[in-house]
């Protein structure tokens, strides 16, 4: 037989889903959190003409608060900067920079497209910029539609903040673009560290 304390815990888990309520950060107030409290914003990109972009690893990245489907967002990135694509992510630190940017620029809607997709129902995900798939941080239970054509594109911040989800490509979301900074380094631009 269950004790009343364990029944309460079970009810709380059912009410709050995944149990993320147990990891609330100090300073949490019902209905409001300061999502940028421990956020390390990346430094501006020091590439001529792209100083409103930010450094994330070897990439200059920029958040666009303009909901587009996955394909249209990719073409928008390509039109924005030479060699740009929807952003690829290659480390936890890089992922954290992207999270910090979206928290700063659009704290009320954290979901956005990343530049990854499932290749022809193969269960393998690829980056649009052709870089290696060397990092992933999926939401628990995701990707959940591999080998189907229902959810082939990758977003961030669906159910767990800072983690990825596969979703339908036709859904309109904000997005983030990125390009390797050395592809358009011009004379007079500072070298990035």
From TrEMBL:
<dbReference type="InterPro" id="IPR001304">
    <property type="entry name" value="C-type_lectin-like"/>
</dbReference>
<dbReference type="InterPro" id="IPR018378">
    <property type="entry name" value="C-type_lectin_CS"/>
</dbReference>
<dbReference type="Pfam" id="PF00059">
    <property type="entry name" value="Lectin_C"/>
</dbReference>
<dbReference type="InterPro" id="IPR016186">
    <property type="entry name" value="C-type_lectin-like/link_sf"/>
</dbReference>
<dbReference type="InterPro" id="IPR016187">
    <property type="entry name" value="CTDL_fold"/>
</dbReference>
<protein>
    <submittedName>
        <fullName>Uncharacterized protein</fullName>
    </submittedName>
</protein>
<dbReference type="InterPro" id="IPR050111">
    <property type="entry name" value="C-type_lectin/snaclec_domain"/>
</dbReference>
